[in-house]
Amino acid sequence: MTEPLVKWSYKGEKGPHYWGHICDEYEIAHTGKNQSPIDIHMEKVMEVQGAPPLELDYKETKYTVRRVENSVHLFPQSKEQGLTYGGQRYNLIAFHGHVPSEHTLNEHYFAMEWHLVHMNEAGERLVLGIWMEQELEGSDFGELASVFPEVFADFGIEKELLLDVSGFLPENRAYFTYQGSLTTPPTFEGVTWIVLRDVTSIAEEDFEAFQDIIEDTNRPLQALGDRQIHHSA
Ligand SMILES: [Zn+2]
């Protein structure tokens, strides 16, 4: 098989500091004022009473697992799950993880961060971020840890997996939110970020399997600029 060209990287001359100069399409990485990820610093966070509730309704679904660029992504075969936020419905379209976390809390990096990527009818993106720390026992990833290296090795390999992402989520729905971008090129803006405040756990064994493949897939922190981070009270 022919490997599709991976146009960007996490290190070297195609690394994050150069993304904005690789091609015109990626320019926003360099010129954008609403880029992600950011440090969520509690001193800069505004607590909002009566913030829009976040209603999550994920269920056990079949996912297609395959390599995308520098990572492994999972695509739900049914779009009938997702979340409701601010009166709008967003369906889950894909998810993936980063090691270590991309967003930080008071400059603290967590072991891992999952990104559940959603889209509403208007085509607007909302990404739900979930922080995880390594523990002895953790979230149920099913067969994902064993499938991960297999699909990463070859762009032509696809696997199917039954998974329920609600098994990753903390019980508390408190969240941070701000307006940002995708964290991989092209780092388009107009993305609503919701990062769950509570941290869940990942078992050491699963973490090591993911770490082997996607270690250092975190884009460096971007300037907050004039943006406001809200915290649901
Ligand atoms: Zn991501």
UniProtKB/TrEMBL annotation:
It comes from the Bacteria. This is carbonic anhydrase. One of its GO terms (molecular function) is zinc ion binding. It holds the Pfam family Carb_anhydrase. Keywords: Lyase, Metal-binding, Zinc. Its EC number is 4.2.1.1. The lineage of its organism: Bacteria, Bacillati, Bacillota, Bacilli, Bacillales. InterPro entries: Alpha_CA_prokaryot-like, CA_dom, CA_dom_sf, Carbonic_anhydrase_a-class. Residues 6-233 form the Alpha-carbonic anhydrase domain. SMART domains: Carb_anhydrase. Belongs to the alpha-carbonic anhydrase family. CDD domains: alpha_CA_prokaryotic_like. It catalyses: hydrogencarbonate + H(+) = CO2 + H2O.
